[in-house]
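Input sequence (282 aa), recorded before submission:
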Amino acid sequence: MKYSAWLADARQIHSYEPVALDALSSYLNYEVSSHDAAKSIVAAEARVPPLQGGLIWGGLLSLAANDPEVHEQLVDLIKAIMSLPNKPQYPLGTAWRDTHDSIWSETIDFKNVRKIDRHNPDPLIKRWPAYHALTARLMAASLLDAHYIALTQIVHALETHLAYPPTPYQAMNIAAAAQYFILCPVEVYLNPLRTKHQDDPGYGWKWGEDMELWKGKLGWSAERWAFWKRRWAEVREMEALSELAGLGDDVRELARRAEVGMDKVERAVAKKGETKVRREGV
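Predicted structure, token format:
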């Protein structure tokens, strides 16, 4: 769904303030700056009772799941909103998790799907990877801490036995996991949970607990990173993945780009060290 169609639908939803939608539309059409759009949206939303389903943040996250082409603009807009002195009090991270869990619950019903209608694919098969792509961009911009979910998604995609041919559900999850290696590989490699192990308090290491293929120790390790890289190489060679309709992107191409992202991080760390890479990126 393109953003124009999303906006048209959004105007029928009473929890979205019309003036805020007008400001968002002008911004997406490159008629106003992110700063001006942010001020208008925040001011408009402040005039109505606070709703989790309002344009901030629920609406922007919904739009992101439906139109990946506006992700860069949305990240800039979210950054501008968060820089305002009167920024929303409702945390972006809470709204993000609520939206994530809502879309995730839809994927459960997708598990038994074995074939996608090429002419009318279920929108979910694109929305799930798109939401993870937006998540990866927000992580790269230091606007969101979603490392636990990112690592869980990677394990779910790369450490699970794949059917042959892979099911649409599996392909969808592989496409979602690839976004983190393509858009924020540094955040994956230098994730803040990498020092959490089984003996540590809390759940920082439990993101990798449900693996099927990984037989090493729990938690992050260079060996596990190398295992993921080998898995991407295997996915890249699965011709059956190219036959799955509905994803938009060729999953094998996403696997190739994920490998490239991993290579970039490895070279950067070898050349500059982890501290500089964490600060400067690749």
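Checked by second reader. The chain has a mean pLDDT of 87.
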